Amino acid sequence: MTQKKNKQTTPPRRQFLEQLGGIGGSAAVYQAMVAMGLLVPGDSKAATNKANWQEKAALFANGPKPSVAVLGAGIAGLCVAYELKKAGFPVTVIEPRDRPGGRSHTLRAGSVLQETDSQQVCGFASGEDMYFNAGPARISQHHANLLNYCSELNVPLQAFVNDNRGAYIHSASAFGGKPVRAREVIAAMRGNISQLLAKSLNAGALDDEFTAGERAFVLAVLKDHGALNDFFQFTGTTRGGLAARSGGLSPDVPATPLERNDVMLDANIAFVPSFVESYNQAATMMQPVGGMDRIAYAFAEQLQAEIFYGAEVSGIFRTGTGVRIEGRTATEQGALETDYVVVTIPPSVLRDIPNDFSPGIQTAIEQTQYANPTKIAFQSPRFWEKEEQIYGGISWTDSDILQIWYPSGGFGQDQGILVGSYLFGGGNATNFGNLSPSARIELALTAGEKVHSQYRANLSQGISVAWSKVPYSLGGWATSNPSPLLLEPDGPFLFAGDHLTYLRGWQEGAVISALNALSKLADAAT
């Protein structure tokens, strides 16, 4: 192993961050992490992230390279191992499952979903578009690190329809409990807000803010934005839908606008439209053709013999010069000694594995909290396309399922996979996860009928996941802010995973953390 050079005369970064946190709190730590290159604010600086690692890896091109173990074949672990192998480092990946991807798990015909208290077998028909992304299901347009790997690994992508004005928004306390199209809600919200602002402008309430010329311009903007009439009143617009189709031979008639208070004063309605305007949810979103696990398998294809599946880590300990990883398979126990280890096991699992991490690291792992998201999916004839002209997107409901996702691929085919619920966490997700798989199906069907009356008659082959019950995951994503300590080496131990970034729950976060771990590994080994 290459000898480490003691070049530091100032406190190491971990000690500095601990001291800074005690003085200035988390905000000071965050700014310091940005300044030190540990976090990237805003867009992912893909070229910079990867270039930093490649520049440092080049220093080892003609010399000895330390051996590295990677614990976990999720996206973070696969990225670390892939880059290490490309750079000629001896690398071994230890993965307890029989597949790569970790939480990036796509279910197809015959797939087995194991939870701590149940097992389900996917009964979908076969087909390229007949899959259920039980874990991550979308990629944002600015997740450049992940998208670059998709290009490098030849993973074809297609648009993921996150926003569809033809999908439904449903609240039991609005519109008589009937679902309405998203376009109706958005048109009514914009129209009513614009009307109220125009009324204030015309009453002189904002004269201190605008000159007469500016006031006239703002009124014109409001008229256009809200589809107001010449009297600055909102009386309806074809943006919200049509009372009846004209067939193209006569003018279309706007549908009667929704009641203002139903749109603006119902919390289950008013906050839904802005969801797709958040930075990570805004169009264009993408997905791999054929399922999200295509990315994990593309990484794994480049590793092959470096990955040991079905091997569960039972201990992580320091040796005199490196690290010893103890593990077991279904038939034997063993150990692996390497110079370094990159740990991508989620803290929800890692906290129960014996180790001799430093006390600060152990505390950070213990304090990381996880969300308990749940999902369920069904096979169905595509009635939403044929009868309701919904092609992709998400319907929202205040019932026990929260969301219904329509497939973004296979348009026009007879059958498709409908995500019948996605709960991000909290009490509803806990209740859903505590149900048996059959009870989850019944709950989802009952709630879904409030959005689609033909729901129960069409849906079959339900399969669900409660991520807090999935072995080797025990949660969906971290809900607590990342610890800066885990971004620095702890002797031979390094850490990676989306939980170490502010892109928690996104594969981009996993890749960013992987590139950070690689850079820090190169620093430590130099």
UniProtKB/TrEMBL annotation:
**Annotated ranges, domain Amine oxidase:** 75-517
User: What are its E.C. numbers?
Assistant: 1.13.12.3
Supply the InterPro entries for this chain.
Answer: Amino_oxidase, FAD/NAD-bd_sf, Flavin_monoamine_oxidase, TAT_signal
Keyword list (alphabetical) reads: Auxin biosynthesis, Membrane, Transmembrane, Transmembrane helix
What is its pathway?
Plant hormone metabolism; auxin biosynthesis
Q: Which reaction does it catalyse?
A: L-tryptophan + O2 = indole-3-acetamide + CO2 + H2O
**A GO MF term:** tryptophan 2-monooxygenase activity
**Do the record's keywords include DNA-binding?**
no
Membrane-spanning segments: 20-40
- Going by the entry's taxonomy, the superkingdom of the source organism is recorded as Bacteria
Gene3D superfamilies from the entry? 1.20.1440.240, 3.90.660.10, FAD/NAD(P)-binding domain (3.50.50.60)
One GO process term, biological-process aspect:
auxin biosynthetic process
Which top EC class applies here? oxidoreductase
Which family does the record assign? Belongs to the tryptophan 2-monooxygenase family.
List the protein's name: Tryptophan 2-monooxygenase
Q: Which organism is it from?
A: OM182 bacterium
